[in-house]
Write a structure and sequence with these properties.
The chain has two domains: about 5-120 and about 290-310, ATPase, nucleotide binding domain (Nucleotidyltransferase, domain 5, 2-Layer Sandwich); about 130-285, ATPase, nucleotide binding domain (Nucleotidyltransferase, domain 5, 2-Layer Sandwich), CATH 3.30.420.40. Helix 5 (about 165-175) packs parallel to helix 7 and helix 5 (about 165-175) packs antiparallel against helix 8 (about 230-255). It is about 40% helix and about 20% strand. The protein contains ten helices and ten strands. It is an alpha/beta fold. The strands form two sheets. Strands 3-2-1-4-5 form a five-stranded mixed sheet, sandwiched between helices. Helix 9 (about 270-280) links the parallel strand 9 (about 260-265) and strand 10 (about 285). Bound molecules: 5'-O-[(R)-(carboxyoxy)(hydroxy)phosphoryl]adenosine (KG4) and zinc ion (ZN). 5'-O-[(R)-(carboxyoxy)(hydroxy)phosphoryl]adenosine (KG4) binds near residues 180 and 182. The site of zinc ion (ZN) has 6 residues, from helix 4.
Length: about 325
């Protein structure tokens, strides 16, 4: 058994997990900072990094205790080294490097998006390469062709806001609590999605890029007109965002001939999106369970396991990169 310790601190969740053979979670702990940032309506970077420092070593100790194993049983330590908030990344990378040095254990830097892709290997229906991935989160909206492990081709990405960012901004317009995604989903349950015909940007074009800033502005203008309930706006917005993601993904499936889709990232927790993609795309879909859609250490351990097996290791010179690109 190959045991990998995964550490994720790129934004506002401290995630620590122990995963066996890249597929079986033995322990996964996430310390969410939602309550700390909620009063500001979004993540405050300086507060986020301080919160990571407060809980990271405790979480690692707890993960080892949960599994009842010692440091000598850990084969590799994987950590997100970008993209993300610099202060937050620094905490995870420095901690993981120090631990790897002290334990004399291999150290594996992982790209955050690669972590989301590998969260699908923790699902009951893991994908087989090659496959198409739709990553939808607070920072990313991209369609990626995954040819083989660690070989990726970007097919499309957002030209402005990420879809999760759009959920968060629209929630703020609707005065719904942070984070916006779950709040909008909840409000939409008692709204009518056909009340407003919000735009589905770029769905009439060949490109596989996305654009979500126009949708946010359309919501703003509709709210200024007044005479509509928050629930109806939330439901109509959610329908437009999900429709856009679905139509672009269907186009990507047609263009690539993909025979499997991986759906991952925080917005993949959205029930309407999961239902439409699994029900209407016409190809099998691998997606992580709800709790592994948002940032966590297990997905970093899963990706780290594969990197470790393929010999992609880091060393003491490895640095965090807020704008790291997925090679
Ligand atoms: O993957 P993630 O935890 O962090 C990033 O890598 O950005 O994604 C967080 C994003 C937030 O924008 C949040 O509003 C969104 O995922 N999200 C959702 C839902 N749950 C979380 N969006 C729509 N519906 C949800 N149920
Ligand atoms: Zn993420």
């Amino acid at each position: 058994m190959t045991l990998v310790l995964g550490i994720e601190t790129s934004c506002d969740e401290t995630g620590v997990a122990l995963v066996a053979d890249g597929a079986r979670i033995l322990s996964s702990e996430v310390a969410s900072q939602i309550a700390v940032h909620a009063e500001f309506g979004g993540v405050v970077p300086e507060i986020a990094s301080r919160q990571h420092i407060l809980c990271i070593s405790q979480l690692v100790r707890k993960a080892l205790a949960d599994v009842g194993c010692g440091q000598e049983e850990v084969s590799a330590i994987a950590v997100t080294n970008g993209p993300g908030l610099m202060g937050s990344l620094l905490v995870g990378v420095c901690f993981a490097k120090a631990l790897a040095y002290a334990w004399r254990t291999p150290f594996v830097p992982v790209h955050h998006i690669e972590g989301h892709i590998f969260s699908a290997f923790l699902s009951g229906d893991p994908p087989v390469f090659p496959f198409l991935t739709l990553v939808v989160s607070g920072g990313h909206t991209c369609l990626i062709w995954c040819e083989r492990p660690h070989e990726y081709r970007f097919l499309g990405t957002t030209r402005d806001d990420a879809v999760g960012e759009c959920f968060d901004k629209v929630a703020r317009l609707l005065e719904l609590p942070y984070p916006g995604g779950p709040s909008i989903q909840r409000a939409a349950e008692s709204g009518n999605p056909e009340t407003c015909d919000f735009p589905r940007a770029m769905t009439q074009t060949e490109t596989l890029d996305f654009s979500f800033s126009g949708l946010k502005t359309a919501v703003l203008y509709r709210l200024r007109e007044g005479g509509i309930s928050r629930e109806d706006v939330a439901a109509s917005f959610q329908a437009a965002a999900v429709d856009t993601l679905f139509l672009k993904t269907r186009q990507a499936v047609e263009q690539t001939g993909a025979r499997r889709l991986v759906l991952a990232g925080g917005v993949a927790a959205n029930r309407l999106l999961r239902t439409r993609i699994t029900g209407e795309l016409g190809i099998p879909v691998s997606m992580p369970p709800f709790e592994l859609c948002v940032d966590n250490g297990a997905m970093i351990a899963a990706a780290g396991y594969s990197r470790y097996k393929h010999g992609f290791l880091g060393d003491t010179r490895t640095r965090p990169h807020p704008g790291l690109r997925l090679a």
